[in-house]
Design a protein that fits this description.
Layout (H helix, E strand, L loop, with lengths): L1 H70 L4 H29 L2 H27 L9 H92 L14 H27 L15 H60 L6 H32 L6 E4 H11 L1 H5 L3 E6 L5 E4 L1 H17 L7 E10 L2 E8 L6 H4 L20 H11 L3 E7 L3 E9 L3
Parallel strand pairs: 2-4
Antiparallel strand pairs: 1-3, 4-5, 5-7, 6-7
Amino acid sequence: MGVSIRNRIYWSFLVLVALFVINGIVTNFTLNKSKKLSVHISTMIDPSQQGLSELQSLLIESKMYTTNWVFLRSNQEDKHSLQLLHQTKYPDLKRRLASLFIQLGSPKMTDSLRQVFKGFEDLLTIEKGIMASLGKFTDYDDPVIKLTAEQTLEDEVIPRTTRLIGLLDRVNTREREIKDREYQNLESYSIRLRTLVLILAIAIVIMGVFLSSYLTSIITQPINLIIKMVNDLGKGKLDTVNLPVNRDEIGTMVRSVNELSNKLRETAIFADEIGKRDFSMHFSPLSEEDILGKALLTMKDNLKASGDELMQTAENLIQRNKELEQFTYIISHNLRAPVANIMGLSQLLAMGPDDDAELATLISRLGASVQSLDNVITDLNVILDIKQQVHEQMEEVSFTQITEDIKITFDTYVQQGLIEIKCDFQTADRVISLKNYIYSIFYNLISNSIKFKRPEEKLLLRITSYLKNDKVSIHFADNGKGIDLEYNGDKLFGLYRRFDTSVDGKGMGLYMVKTQVETLGGQISVESCLHAGSTFIVDLPLIN
């Protein structure tokens, strides 16, 4: 059975391959001929036709410009165009057409084109005589020169131009005949190619019907069952094929697939135990070439060895982090007392006699330095407080209520007509989160918009909420100064990083906003264009 099926399939496919090869050779030959014709038309015939049209236009333009030269002495634009035609346009076109017609390989057309060139160059010589005789503005006042130029135009330029256009039309007609013939050849190749494709399609259909009927009756049923099982294996289902195991190719495939399914089931059980961190189960590779089994054993040993180390490292990191936070907290609070004492002493010294200007300057500088150090310590305490507040009680927070509370703070700006805040929280108005965090985020973003408004324009701030799956997205869009993100994007949310020094600030607001948003499990991003406003986008989980 196996040998007979294999031989029949072999010869059937050999016939198909032969058909494909023959068709490929003929198709390739036909396509190459079609390609050469297409290239010849696009690179030779079409450009040459275009060149002949341009040459005909030059003939008409030269007659028109020469006529205007004779009768319109003030038309400097046409005179310049005629000179450009003589000096540049015609020589360039002649070189291009001569090269194209030599490659076309038509001696008669080339000779006709040379006659056109010769006639046109004679005509240009006549035109140059007219141009020379009326070269100056005062030459038009000489009736003899003017009359001679007009006579030459009527007797020479116009008749010669008409004859040259007629000769050029004949050349163009022959060119179109060549193009039509090439297109006919191209169409012939296309018909031949379609015929070959149709013949091959019919042959393949006939052979396909034969093979499909044969394979369906002999091979397809067991193969489909094996394919289903392999697909199930890909989906993680480990079943076996329930078919009689004969001594042929199909029987061998059934035995192999069933054995594979059983061994994969053993491997899956072992992998599941490793995933549960149960390293006591015994497992042996399926063979010497079992890469997956050996990898699982190696993974088992590595996980067992590294698990304890990882746990110990995690415990050490947690302990170190707690110690570091405690150390930072102690340092920041312990520094406040001596800094406060120094500030008090500097104030007492400043209240003393002011007859020593140098001493007064030193005391002033001392006070400023101590004040700066105190600000740094205060900021450090604020950041530490952010980390401490994470453990506060979560509650329902209303965006509308928080915004109304903040508006009261900036009511003076509203009354003066300097700012307008519009809110739309219809989509989402409430989250379960830390109220003081949400308030701080809203306050900092609103105050930033006011701080960086354009002086000459009223600030319009729109605060809108949107639902995104299990999150709420809040957009703070203003028409303020905007931010050059190309130069300031990397430092926008950094600590003590400021992107506009024209207004007061310490560079902590956006850092605190980012820290608070991320502490709440959210994200913040910005879209901005310089002088066109900014949009800060805060994405927060609905429930923390």
